[in-house]
Design brief:
The chain has 188 residues and is mainly β. Helices cover 5% and strands 38% of the residues. The protein has one domain (2-176): Beta Barrel (Thrombin, subunit H), CATH 2.40.10.
């Protein structure tokens, strides 16, 4: 699974899906460290969970598959809600692509219909559907309004910026991934 590099992960971290299933994270791997002037650059990480998830697997968008500026796409997250064992509704939000070339590794979006991406959505997917297939183009990275709890404008890590690394790492298998210790999970 892909998530944001800035999300802190430890031995107690769980991934929760829309159907309420929860999985422990067993491995965490990030691309090579890059020297940049912006903390939001290359904000991607791969994680391995302790089980198989039923359902379709998203395709990773190449640069050519990223939606054009002005087009609509979707994001998914739990927002600022505290996750419990009770029913938490995963929310889907329509966004408009503002700048697919914001940087070599980031895309900017604006939430539609008075929506907002909130604290707790970090690491969640930005996607489109093509021919009944889910295509992952970004991972929620940061608010474009500083430390705002919720924002109508958001920065997404562009998965195509690490396309080769993602494909090679997945092909090598999680047995080849070093275990990386991190702190507790945090939103942005």
């Amino acid at each position: 699974m892909l998530t944001a590099r800035h999300c802190r992960i430890d031995k107690t971290t769980r991934v929760v899906f829309a159907d309420g299933s929860s999985y422990k994270i067993t491995r965490y791997f990030v691309p090579r460290v890059r020297v940049t002037n912006d903390d939001d650059e290359h904000d991607l990480a791969l994680i391995k969970i302790d089980g198989e998830v039923a359902g379709p697997v998203a395709e990773i968008a190449s640069e050519a598959m990223i939606p054009p500026n002005g087009s609509y796409a979707w994001t998914v997250g739990y927002g600022g809600k505290r996750l419990t064992k009770r029913s938490n509704r995963l929310r889907r939000l329509a966004v408009r692509i503002l700048d697919r070339d914001y940087s070599s590794s980031a895309i900017t979006v604006r939430a539609e219909a008075n929506g907002a991406v909130c604290d707790g959505d970090s690491g969640g997917p930005g996607y489109i559907e093509i021919d009944n297939k889910v295509v992952l183009w970004g991972i929620d990275s940061a608010s474009m309004h500083g430390d705002a709890k919720c924002s109508s404008r958001e920065l997404y890590a562009k998965v195509s910026s690490e396309y080769d690394w993602i494909r090679k790492t997945i092909a090598a298998g999680p047995g080849a991934w070093p275990v990386q210790q991190r702190g507790a999970v945090s939103g942005h």
